């Protein structure tokens, strides 16, 4: 008998097959384990001003958890084993993806922080070479020392007149000046207020950063952008200011290098000149590369230095230990001139400052410059802790929350204690980059890590050698502004007092 001609038997077989298929699918679904739901994206929106506190509270309850969103699952983890899996072991499955790219591209374009694949590999390769050259390293040390001395002069004037100063504002200006010199080879001089365009650029850059992060919790941002209203209308204006300023510098530099017969210009140490020395001179590409360098070198360093000064003010004994070390190692007691002292700070000198390195690292543990970082899952996966991840899920690790977890750092995790990074001989002992995630890890580990430490150490050494820092309001508890990088909300007002250098 032809069973296909027997409709009753065929229907019965089809029903059995369907039931077996459904049973098989349900069994496989049951095998999957999903992280507990801890809230929704709307909870993030309601807690936006204290977003990292909110996420730390959730992480204390669930090492890995989910937030529900209308468009995708959002999975947050503070488990170092998961972090290593995402950032290293299964790196290819967790990239920026179109979701992150669309949010970030208006500010950062196709820079290294927004792209995957060949574009990322190309920029990573070129940038890795540039940051490793002795020419750029030596050039940056000179620039950092020069701008640290210039900042010291401003602080000296404030100390003489007993004025309070916003150390975060000055740090932002100082690192912006440094990065423009290192990246573009131009004197911005925003510390002295001589560049009105530079000031507008800096304000626009900070505002655009905040509005970019807000897109992660604003499900209507694409509609606002299409209609050119609200925060997206402001975002458009801010990015235009940024682009106009950067393109102007790039075009000027290209014209100068093309028209000049002086071949020494082709040997300039700044990053833009070195990129132009090759074949790449597309202004849009250069804009994206240079803005990525600026956001990496300006915001992260300035915010870290601001939090560092805040913590030293709250812990004067640590401030004293840092000063004792730098005076012992830098031979600074008899050098009264800021610039002369800065010139003595070679890489070898600052590398020997183990306690200073520990104090900066401890600052980054508590106040990481980039408090959260998310990746998009490319294909269905299972994390080492057993939780399933689906294609298209946003998977986020949380440096801010991880730095506060007692299960990772002990019962004193909420205390500022640089000694936790030192062995019995006072030598710095690094931790796993999957536990201390301030610089990412794996193939995307921050190329400018040593660059940032170098700038922070030089600024700290010059300023702390000559000045004692105190909060203008010693009872103040600093809070962050929720943006891509962890700025102190409202700045940091401090008093500076001259130290005795004899």
UniProtKB/TrEMBL annotation:
Source species, domain of life: Eukaryota
Q: Where are the transmembrane segments?
A: 6-26
Residues engaged in binding heme: 446
The family database entries (Gene3D superfamilies) matched by this protein are listed as:
Cytochrome P450 (1.10.630.10)
> Which keywords, in A-to-Z order, does the entry hold?
Heme, Iron, Membrane, Metal-binding, Monooxygenase, Oxidoreductase, Transmembrane, Transmembrane helix
User: Which SUPFAM superfamilies does the protein's record reference?
Assistant: Cytochrome P450
* Molecular function GO labels: heme binding; iron ion binding; monooxygenase activity; oxidoreductase activity, acting on paired donors, with incorporation or reduction of molecular oxygen
Which cofactors does it use? heme
Entry's family note: Belongs to the cytochrome P450 family.
Q: Which PANTHER family match?
A: CYTOCHROME P450
Give the protein name, as stated in the record. Answer: Cytochrome P450
